[in-house]
Design a protein that fits this description.
single chain, about 230 residues, alpha+beta, rod-shaped
């Protein structure tokens, strides 16, 4: 192949041959790969020229195939197409779908203590910060209704799939004034819950319960259910 050779192509049942030297062959192969990758890049954010821009790489790849073989040319083209599509599609699956978020929603109190004076309805502002290298999150919820309370927790997260994870958190229920859905006294609290990320969006649907042990001054535990929609970041 140092001087030249034939390139065989089959179209509409007929075989055609083209005589070309080594330089022409390399230019032909490079142009074919660039055209394929340019076609693929129109559906992504990668430039065709940036994917194949080294003459030495083209020469190295060309040596792997017999220049007189149509099968070799087809194999070379398919390999280039697969590499191009992988480079374009890889980022779409490189990131888990759950993560940190801030959201709002309603909360419903399930208890009122021995005095039957607890709040039954409240709004909630929920936040989650997820550590990337550990199945642990720092969470906080603020309940705003007849009274105000905050519930900071640290949770252990268990992912069910790329969109959903369940968790169990532990922390404190801290009323700041009035009768709240989590009682009227600072106490230890647990928080089981679930987060679900809506596909192809940054929206999170969340739901959880808070159980505040000894949440009432008169005795008894306080419990509440809440849910809402958050924005993932």
């Amino acid at each position: 192949f140092s001087d030249g050779g034939f390139l065989y192509c089959k179209s509409s049942g007929k075989t055609h041959s083209f005589l070309m030297n080594k330089t022409q062959y390399l230019a032909f192969v490079k142009r074919a790969i660039l055209d394929m990758m340019k076609h693929n890049s129109e559906r992504g954010s990668h430039s065709a020229e940036s994917l194949v821009n080294e003459e030495s790489m083209m020469k190295g790849l060309a040596r792997l195939f017999n220049p007189l073989s149509l099968c070799g040319a087809v194999t070379f083209a398919c390999a280039g197409s697969i590499v191009g599509m992988a480079a374009i599609q890889a980022p779409a699956s490189a990131q888990a779908a759950y993560g940190s978020y801030v959201g709002i929603g309603p909360a419903v109190g399930l208890s009122s203590g021995n005095q039957d004076s607890g709040s039954r309805l409240s709004g909630v502002i929920a936040g989650r910060y997820k550590f990337l290298r550990a199945p642990i999150s720092v969470r906080a919820q603020a309940f705003i209704g007849n009274g105000v309370a905050i519930v900071p927790t640290v949770s252990y997260d268990y992912p069910l799939n790329w969109q959903t994870d369940v968790y169990l958190g532990a922390g404190a229920s801290i009323p700041l004034g009035g009768d709240t859905v989590v009682g009227n006294r600072t106490s230890f609290a647990i928080q089981p819950g679930i987060d679900y990320v809506l596909p192809n969006s940054n929206l999170v649907v969340f739901g959880n319960a808070v159980i505040a042990f000894d949440g009432y001054r008169g005795g008894g535990a306080a419990a509440t259910l809440q849910g809402g929609v958050g924005f993932r970041f």
